[in-house]
Structure formats: C-alpha cells, structure tokens
Amino acid sequence: MLKTAILAIVVVIFVAVLAFAAYVRLSPTDVARFHVAPAATEPTDMTGENSFTAARFITTAPQGMLQAFVTLSETRDDTTLVAGSVAENLLTFETRSRLMGYPDYTTVTVTDDAEPLLVIHAQSRFGKSDMGVNQARVRDWLSLMGNLVVPLS
Predict the structure, then answer these.
(1) pLDDT band at 76 (very low <50, low <70, confident <90, very high)
(2) CATH T-level assignment (fold) for domain 30-148
(3) Has residue 96 got a pLDDT over 80?
(4) pTM for this structure?
(5) Which residues are within 8 A (CB) of 51 and not within 5 positions of it... i.e. 6 or more apart?
(6) InterPro entries, alphabetically (predicted)?
(7) Which of 53, 109, 113, 134 could form a disulfide with 121 if both were Cys (CB 3.0 to 4.6 A apart)?
C-alpha cells in the first residue's frame, strides 16, 4: 500500500512537470509586450528583476549595427528574430533554454542621438529570477560584436 501511494505521488509529480514543460513551450506569447524600445541616455549596465539592460556607444552606422545582430541570430540554434526589422530600428529576439525551453526576449535598438547608443534589453518571460542568464547573453552578444561596440569604461 505504501509503495502504491509513493508510485502515485511520483506519477502526479511527473505529469505536473510534463504539463508545465508543455505550457512553457507551447503557450502563445504577446510579442508586443516585449517589442518595446529600451531607453538609455548614456553607456551603462542595469540589472533588474529577471532582466538586464546594456547601453554602449557604437563605431558603425546604426543600421549596420542592427544588421550584425540579425546575422548573429541566424547563426544560433536557440535564437529567433520574432519582431521588428533593421528598417524599423527595433529588433526583438526570442531565445529558448535548452532543457525546459524557457523563453527569454532580447530587444535591441540604436538611439537617434548625435552619438548613437546601442541599447539591449533582455528579460525572461517566466519566473522571478533569471539566474543571470540574460546578463550573460547580453555580455556574450556584445563581445561577439567586437570593435563595433565601445567597451564600457
């Protein structure tokens, strides 16, 4: 009888985990919620609850900078451009975690100021903590941009 109860509990937990995984992978996303231009007025890094924002001066034309992000996304299996375009000056990418498929959204824009500023905002859709994955992704993407981006002093 105890073995049957334990087995029932294990089955219930397993089904709950599968249901949650299916919800995370299959639930529709209101992309408009994430496709909003991030704002910054100077180079900076800002950490928020389940998000990270970085702003950097750039050494290339704004359209070239944004095209570099589109090209980068095309080389990654886990990242897809879900909204925006270079012409719109606003790109939003969805990146899914490998195991559970958690979606994170990264929005990229370049300000129209005299000295253009690249602004990247990455945030998780689910949860209260992203365990630093958004910050790590943004920093990785910035490093991959090489000399197109001026390092934060």
Answers:
(1) very high
(2) TATA-Binding Protein (3.30.310)
(3) yes
(4) 0.87
(5) 121, 122, 123, 124, 130, 134
(6) DUF1499
(7) 53
